[in-house]
Amino acid sequence: MKKKPSSPRDPASVSAREESGQTANRLDRIEKDSMGEMLVPANALWGASTQRAVQNFPIGSLRPQPTLISALALIKAAAAQANLQLQDLDAIRAKAIIAAAKQVADGTYDEHFVVGLFQTGSGTSTNMNANEVIAALTKRSLSRSSSKKNKSAVAQTAATVHPNDHVNMGQSSNDVIPTAIHVAVAVEIAARLIPALQTLQDGLTEKATQYSAAIKTGRTHLQDATPVTFGQEFEAYASQISACINRLKVLVEGLCFVALGGTAVGTGINTRETFAALALRNLSRLVNSRHKTKLRFREAPNHLAAQGSIDSLVDAAGVLQTLSTALIKIANDIRWMASGPRAGLNEILLPAIQPGSSIMPGKVNPVICEAIMQVGYRTLGNCQTVVYATQSSNFELNVALPVVSYSLLESLQLLSDAVVVFQEKCLDGLAPTRTGAALVERGLALCTALAPVVGYDLAASIAKEADSTGETILAVALRRTQIERSQLEKILDPMTMTRPGLSGVKLAQ
Questions:
Q1: Number of domains making up the chain
Q2: In this structure, is residue 129 part of a structural domain?
Q3: Exactly one of 34, 61, 147, 221 is catalytic; which is it?
Q4: What does DSSP assign to residue 193?
Q5: Which of 112, 185, 225, 385 is most buried, by the most CB atoms less than 10 A from its CB?
Q6: Catalytic residue among 7, 145, 339, 357
Q7: What is the pLDDT of residues 241-294, one digit of tens each?
Q8: Which CATH number fits the domain that encloses residue 254?
Q9: What's this model's pTM, rounded to 2 decimal places?
Q10: Range of the domain at 489
Q11: Is residue 468 among the annotated active site residues?
């Protein structure tokens, strides 16, 4: 005779829960999963599996970002639609699951995603958190919508909405979580980062045009070099950003090939052959409608490779690393050019947006540049985390997916915000000072234009003498060469030095 299971109110059952640290009170309810009973907060939408994860992983305060949860929820909606199309899921459950998943994607129930970031490496706990929350919302919806006419049928359906059997139908954490990461990263890049970078590129190009005739000293090794224009400098920055945008566009195309359909190990067990294609078509429509993008998600060419590695996400880390270093370089250049105002370069003036010191009155610091650089340092660290995490790609699964997801999404969010701040609070109000042209006139590197005319050695001697006496290159050259003043002025014209060509005079032999 089969032993009757103990009731939650039985002394033995209560005693067992007390031993495990689960003490029931009037604010708790009993939930069950395949491992048995769990006490769950009464108002929580999650179930036993999620509660186990909460207890198992009390590690820090980080949780998966809402952007990942939103992507995960849209996948659940797309999967439910596909299962309805395949007639594997009845219309009552499917439509209710889709509606509930869309509410989760909106962020309405973010507080019910309670599993910490550092958890099972596949992200199974987060997937089950989503399954349980969506199942609970589905049950609630069906219970409320039942009428007298069909109350019995709908109530029975609501009672049998299962997080694994219905919400997770045709899926595994092992293909859903990698897919959610790809979707979230692709959306963040396409909907936020690329538009922000395009605005920055346009702003840099505008500055390049505006200051195309504003001369300044070029520098190599932090030492004076031949002249350039502010326009050329900002045109170079715009070119860097343009190249980063192009890399991101190529990256997004690759990220749109996802793991969904591979289920447990990439073989597609327990899913129909057409499920993934249908679900991804649905997912593309949901994502594009929500985020105003034009993404097309498709099955990865090889599901085992898509689940057993994170190569595409390492690619993403590499592109974000290049972008981060570009932004650091641009911000640091601007910071240096703004140094001073009396003991530095003082070639450009930055907007004064806040007091720079708690002790030195009147001091204004390049705070936006410093913030951008710190974002760059953080994202470089995140990119390295992704690279390290690829070492956890063992056989048919990578087991560092939660931290990979967090690292990439945090980087994208920081970079998108930083680019907007950089444009609005620094670049828009930036302007050259008169110092740049004055420094060019006194610059020793002007002698470079003399070298083809008088020879390298004499040009170097003129530069050394000018440095020693404090004179200009023009003044010393008038004394040391037989070249007429008008010709020397032509040779030493700084603007002539900012483009290819020679002075037109006879070259030294």
A1: 4
A2: yes
A3: 221
A4: I
A5: 185
A6: 357
A7: 999 999 999 999 999 999 999 999 999 999 999 999 999 999 999 999 999 999
A8: 1.20.200.10
A9: 0.92
A10: 442-498
A11: no
